[in-house]
Amino acid sequence: MTHPAPPLAALFELTHRCPLQCAYCSNPLALTPPAQELTTAQWQDAIRQLQALGVLQVHFSGGEPAARNDLETLVETAHRSDLYTNLITSGVTLKEARIDRLAGAGLDHIQLSIQDTDEAQADAMAGVKGALARKAAAARAIRAAGLPLTVNCVIQRRNVARVAAMIDWALEAGARRIEIAHVQYYGWAIPNRAALLPPREAVDRALAVIEDARERLKGIIAIDHVIPDYYAARPKACMGGWGRQFLVIDPAGDVLPCHAAKTIPDLRFDNVRQRDLASIWNEGEAFQRFRGTAWMPQPCRSCERKEVDWGGCRCQALKIAGNAAATDPACALSPAHARLQALAGVTDLAPSPLLYRRYI
Ligand code: SF4
Ligand code: SF4
Q1: Has residue 347 got a pLDDT over 70?
Q2: What's the DSSP call for residue 93?
Q3: Of the candidates 75, 118, 282, 324, which lies 20 to 30 Å from 128 by C-alpha distance?
Q4: Per residue in 78-115, pLDDT tens?
Q5: Using 50, 70 and 90 to split pLDDT, how confident is the model at 350?
């Protein structure tokens, strides 16, 4: 049996605990309770297996990864295993001393997320007060520790007009890169979709601001931006293609081809407590199901882009087309594209109260 190339990177969802409650959080509605999280030794074992598999990067995420007291130990283990280490954090609990310890443990890079540059709106989206000021303080400490910083902004209806202010915030914070990503409609974003989806015109205006800033700030800050699926004509290569570049380990140790894969009900996931990572990656049922192109229906099967976008997102295909093995409805060639476009038109002009992410 020929094995696939090893993954480029692994995303560790260390915990679902988080001090914020963002209404667009992509974590599942059924959050993993702390008692079910992998132990330090189990995460360390996973890191060593990744090294043996030939993985190059590990991204520590969550929830809020800093909620784990062993974060420094895990960063150090990954660093000693020659893995590039990236921390994806809300930053609200990260104080100077902890950032220094993480830098000392060998952390290579931090991605700090902001909800908005308007404090009241940031509070309203995160469901807690005063997060933005704490993020600004964390950004200063990150730069003081000499760590490269990327600022992540999640765009939705209530902040889409402030893209320019977000770029300014990232510049002020000393970031080398800003990632402007539209909400992905998984997890908690689904019940909040009508309140979060910006209208097309607002997305187009934001795009013009981004294009202008890209030109103006060339060599100063890199600006990444992806057109939101609901207004796209072709899908993105979700996770670089299913089972091609990434694996995700959730807090309880289930190994997933993407962080939303558990929304596909008939997929069976292996767990690092029971099976080694190499065998999960090479032969695990969940990874095999949509790897490559053999599973593809028409129009993907005979499409020249099939090894470019790999048919797009399986979770979105299930959500919108009702079939995880269908062409991603973000593609204009998909028979379900009109359904996605119809949903894009359903924005809540008098937004209903947000459903906040929490343990339920
Ligand atoms: S999106 Fe918000 S609630 Fe979800 S993990 Fe990130 S900071 Fe926490
Ligand atoms: S038909 Fe399939 S492979 Fe072709 S562009 Fe659309 S999603 Fe991609």
Answers
A1: no
A2: T
A3: 75
A4: 999 999 999 999 999 999 999 999 999 999 999 999 99
A5: low
Cβ(149)–Cβ(133) below 8 Å:
no
Ligand nearest to the CA of 311: 2
Q: Which ligand is nearest to the CA of 181?
A: 1
As given in the structure block, the two tokens for residue 267 are: 């997929």
Beta strand pairing status for 57-61 and 84-89? parallel
Task: Write down the mean pLDDT value for the chain.
Answer: 94
Convert 220-270 into a string of H (helix), E (strand) and C (coil). Answer: CCEEEECCCHHHCCCCCCHHHCCCCCEEEECCCCEEECCCCHHHCCCCCCC
Whole-model pTM: value is 0.94
Q: Do strands 222-225 and 109-114 pair parallel, antiparallel, or not at all (unpaired)?
A: unpaired
Among 12, 25, 32, 94, name the best residue to mutate to test ligand 1's pocket (greatest count of ligand atoms within 8 A of Cβ). 25
Rounded distance between C-alpha atoms, residue 238 and residue 246, angstroms? 10
pLDDT of 229 higher than 70: yes
The CA distance from 316 to 327, in Å, is 9
